[in-house]
Each structure stands twice: as structure tokens, then as C-alpha cells.
């Protein structure tokens, strides 16, 4: 199929191709300038629009539920059980409202993120900036764990890539049949250069 990302080869990696879906011109130019070779795969995270929609919808739903609870209990006695239940429900809704507003602001400020995997490196793109890294530019990888109580590490959610210049950034893990070919290719290339992978 034209423009589709091919499936994994025998070695588990995707065959490099010119364009697996739309790639922004600044990313293509940056990858060419850095000599990253052919595009292999793209991993997109939430976009600015989707983050904004999720945040706004969460905030609006929380406000409507809080208003509905207020209307339901305004004629009830302050000490009534209905009022006490509504009070207990208001607190999580208030946290939901704050989370929704914060998520909307984060979406507008940071924008969407995408990782473009090339034969010879990686481009990390944010709303207003793109950074390209050859495999030699990456000094190490460390797993990003789900947080658990009492300091226990949960499942691996992704990996933090530490470049020789600039700030570290995370690549989410997307497992299919127990493997993530996108992340496997990064790990293999970084390990081949003797860089630490935890």
C-alpha cells in the first residue's frame, strides 16, 4: 500500500522508506542536514489539539457536575447525608477541574511531540523545535518506570534518551506481541557504540 509503514523484517525492524505518512519539511531538512539516512518509522504522541480537547472536556464535565451537585443540595440541610455525600464528591471533581485546566495549558504551551526514526539517528520534534541526533550523539538510555507505592518500580513505560547536547527526552514504549521494534532499533544502535543502556 502506497505511503504505509511496512511491517517488521526478519530482524524485527521496519524497512527504511522515504515517507511513512506526512513528515514536516523542517524535520526532513534537519535529518538530511545531519545525514540520518532514510526514514524508518514515526512515533507520534498526543497532539496540541487532542491535549487541549481532553483538558477542556474534562474541565467542563467537572464544572457541570459540581454545579449539578450544588443545585441538588442547595435546599438540603448542611448536616444532611445528601449534603455530606455531595461535599465528598466535590473534592475529586475540583481536582479533576484543576487537572483539566493544567493539561490544557500544557498542551498549548508544549504542543504535540513526535519521534522520527531514521537509519542513522533520531529526530525529536516538538511544536516549535526539532532536534536531530545521530547514534553517536546519544550517550545513554535509561528506562522510565510507572510509579508505584513505597518506591517499587512498576512496568517500563518508555526510555529516557540522554543526548550529548541538549536536555534528555522520553520515548514511550509501544509493545506489540511483547516487542517494540521502534525502541529495539534505538537500543541496538546505541549498544553497538558501547553506550550504557539500563
From TrEMBL:
TM region positions: 51-70, 85-105
Stretch list, region Disordered: 1-24
Keyword field: Membrane, Transmembrane, Transmembrane helix
Name of this chain's protein: PH domain-containing protein
Native species: Actinomadura harenae
Taxonomic classification: Bacteria, Bacillati, Actinomycetota, Actinomycetes, Streptosporangiales
